[in-house]
Amino acid sequence: MLAITMNTVNPSLAGHSDAASSLWRNAPYLLLMTGKTSQLVGNGTAVFAVPLIAFGITGSVLGSGIIGAISEAGLLLAILPAGVVADRVDRRRLLLTCSAIGLIVWLSLWLAEATGMLTAAELAAGLLVAAAVSAFYAPTESAGIRYVVSSEQLGTAMAAMQGRGAVASLVSGPLGGLLYGLSRALPFLGSAIGYLLAGVTTLLVRVPLNDRRSHERRVGAVASLVDGFRFVTAVPIIRTAIGVVALLNLAFGGTFVSINLHLVAIHTAPLLIALVDVAAGVAMLIGSIVAPSLVKRFPSGPLAIVCLAPSVLGCFGLALSNEYAQFVLLAFAMSLFIAPANAGLLGYMSAITPQNMQARMNSVLSLSSIAVAPLAPLLGGVFLSIVGLGWSVAVFAAMMLIGFVMFAANRAVRRVGLPDSWEADLVEWPPADHAS
């Protein structure tokens, strides 16, 4: 039986929760956000250039694809161990370690490419390590933010995190293209600088990012990982999110892949193809700006259900569309209210998760998205080649509708309230009747 208890005040926040009424006066939060933003933008510039550089080295699309797959494998293999480690060690030191390794890896790739000595094997190995570093950095930073932000501010914090992701995606592509135009190696240097800035901002964080507990270190790593899975499957809303988020992400990604591949097939200008994704990114940014006020005013569960409805309707609209302007407008509509839905639910799930489970919870949620990521381009290409654009998007729209119905019908989702009620739902883990 899962026990629910009242939350306690984080030791790092005790005594000044009223004074720190605004996130913008929360120095540790701002430093962590700045560091992660730098890492995201830097990594995005490199990700833009990797396929081009890989093709230049290998001379084949297949070789470039294999190198990209190796990078994805690093992310997939590292994400679960990352959550275990981040819940067992000093998170601030782990962020510094990730920043140092990321800096070294990308500087090495930059130097090798700039001197014309980079080989396919070296590129693949470097990307494998870089992906693993990114997998460790993400849940560690998310768990650290939870430690320095009060439960009442989590909705606003999550909205800001959604916004930084949108900004990073909008900035990193053009920046990567600009740097690549100046020198093929420069995007790698951009990623190295991103990790350097992330390390500097982490050094300036003067508070701990997790409790100083010895219990997790007494438990084996495998047992700790198993305990993380037990936790996420025992909490109804997190258990629901794992399956539904995976299905919605697959449908969302497959829809955009189908649209982009269709535009490529009809010889649309590359800039116009990119504008479809830019429209979605701009919508996400706008949504992240309005998300804090929405999360404060409306219960997050019902809010998320309402906010996901335009995505479902927009997806069915795309299945009936055949003009470029319609693609852009509907991509914008599909993406506009994603940030408020994410902000409320992610904030709530973080608020009810104990401090020593934060990174593992984030890792498992991330895995649900990462695991289906390779399926979106695969299914999009297969459906498009067999049934054409309209039916291809219709299949993904049906997936999205199924995920939406499962989501809206779940009682655990519908009962999520306003941020000031989240603390009361803190999950006691391990449950009292199983605790030793």
From TrEMBL:
Q: Which family does it belong to?
A: Belongs to the major facilitator superfamily. Drug:H(+) antiporter-3 (DHA3) (TC 2.A.1.21) family.
Instruction: Enumerate the UniProt keywords alphabetically.
Output: Cell membrane, Membrane, Transmembrane, Transmembrane helix, Transport
What subcellular locations does the record give?
Answer: Cell inner membrane
List the transmembrane segments.
40-59, 65-86, 93-112, 118-138, 159-182, 188-209, 229-252, 264-291, 303-321, 327-352, 364-383, 389-409
**Signal sequence bounds:** none
Tell me where in this chain the Major facilitator superfamily (MFS) profile domain is found. 187-436
Name where it mostly resides: membrane
- Keyword Membrane tagged: yes
Q: Which GO terms describe its cellular component?
A: plasma membrane
Quote the protein name from its UniProt record: Multidrug efflux pump Tap
In the UniProt record, does the keyword Transmembrane occur?
Answer: yes
How does it sit in the bilayer?
Answer: Multi-pass membrane protein
Protein's organism: Paramicrobacterium humi
**Entry's InterPro entries?**
MFS, MFS_dom, MFS_trans_sf
Q: Which domain of life is it from?
A: Bacteria
Single GO MF descriptor: transmembrane transporter activity
